[in-house]
Every structure is written in C-alpha cells, then in structure tokens.
Write a structure and sequence with these properties.
With 278 residues, this protein is mainly α. The chain has one domain. It is built from eight helices and five strands, in the order E-H-E-E-H-H-H-H-H-H-E-H-E. Strands 3-2-5 form a three-stranded antiparallel sheet. A two-stranded parallel ribbon has the order 1-4. Helix 1 packs antiparallel against helix 2, helix 1 packs parallel to helix 8 and helix 5 packs parallel to helix 8.
Length: 278
Amino acid sequence: MPPQNPAGPPAGPPAAPRVALPTIVGLALLLMPLCTMLHEIGGHSAMCVALGYKVTELGSFYINCSSPPGTMAMRAVALAGPGIDTLVGLVFLAGWHRLRGDWARLIGWYVGLGCAFSASGYLLFSGVTGLGDLGPSGEGGLAPLPLPYVWRGCFAVVGAATYAGLVMVGMRRLTAMIGNGPETKRARRNIAHGFYAALCVAAVLASLPNPMGLVITLTSAAAASIGGHAGLIAIGYATRNEGEPRAFVIGRRLWLLALGIAASFAFALILGSTIGYR
C-alpha cells in the first residue's frame, strides 16, 4: 500500500485578484458626490450655520457664506472643508485594518485615502497657487494673513510631503488586499486608474452648469478631482515583477453602476447650477 500524504495534495498557485471595472466605475460615480457633499455641506456649510451665519449659495463644488470676508468666522468656514476631510480620512485610515471582507476593505481604502488626498491636496494647491480654501492672500479662504508667501511655502512643503506619504500608504494597503506580481496588474489598474478616470470625468461634468463659469470648474472641481486624486495614477502603476497575488474578488454589479450614474446625475442636476438662498 503506497504511503499516504497526510498533508494532502500540494496547494496550487494563489488565485489572481478579479476586479470588475464597471463596478469600480459605479463606486467612483457614487462616492464622488457623497464625498463632495461631505466637504461642502458637512464642512463649510455646517460651520457657517454653526457660527450663526447663513449659506447664501450652495453649488456642487462651492458655497457662499454670509460671514464677512477677512474675519475669523470666514477663516473658520474655509478651514472646515479640509478639516472634515482630514477627520474622516484619519478615521478610515486608522480603522482600515479592522475591516473584514473585500468590499469593506476596498470602500474603506477609497474613502480614507480619498479624503486624506483632498486634505493634503488643499495644502499643496493653496500653497502653490495662493487660491482655494487655504489660500492666505487675495481671494483665498484664509486671506488676509501676514507674510502670505511664508504661509504658502509652509503649506506647499507640508502638503507635498503628506501627499507623497499617502501615496505610499495607498500602495502598501492595496498590495495587502490584492498581493503583487504580474497577475495583479489588471486589478490594480482597474481599482486605481478606472476609479480615477470616472471620478474626474464626473466631477468636471457636474461643475460645468455653475453660474461662475470655468473658474469654479478649474479651481474647484478639476483641482479637487484631477489634481487631488492624482496619486491614484502612481498607485495604479505600482505593480512589481515579483510577489504573489491574493484572492480578492469584486464582481460585476451593474446595479451599482446604475446607482452611481443616478447619484452623479442627481448631484449635477440639483447642485450643478447652484441653489441660492435668501
């Protein structure tokens, strides 16, 4: 009688991760309006109302508050948007390791990294251009601050360093989900590049009806999406030639794609042309 192998047959190679691109596009189209409203409504608008002022305009990528410009109240309103992004990003990044299941880990990765990208991206953007929520001079949200170029330099350095660190965190955690090696290339590209492309297109299109024209599209929608999430480009290319894939499955969910399209369309239809309050 031949000897028995108590360990059973040798295990085969790990299954390659499978990630359906339509599902990723649906997630991007759903998370784009949700995360944007978190910034504009949960951050700027909530602070405006909490300080006793009134939101006079609410658009897809900006608000106007009745607080006088150049005051501490106006600065608090400006800080509240990146502030809520920072808080949510830290919560999801810190709690990511506790998430279980492919779907939960992927959504937690998107939300945590996306909000953190937005917060550090605002520092970098306002430092380089002097514009945006954290701009210390001119039309910037924190203006006027003394020695604005010193502030801008500090913002740019801190923003760039933080953003680079977040890219590395994003790479490591994506590898923890899907593994590495040539078998993971397609899944990695779908997760990072597919999400980025859908997010950017949806954000820019949703901003086009705004009454202030291209200034909002370029300095808010495009800056927050194309610029703010540009780290996903590097993450999508971070496949190594060595390493083993992990079993990670995000199947095709056409209902999620339809839900994302509906959410982005409703976001553009309702807030794209701006709601005015009297």
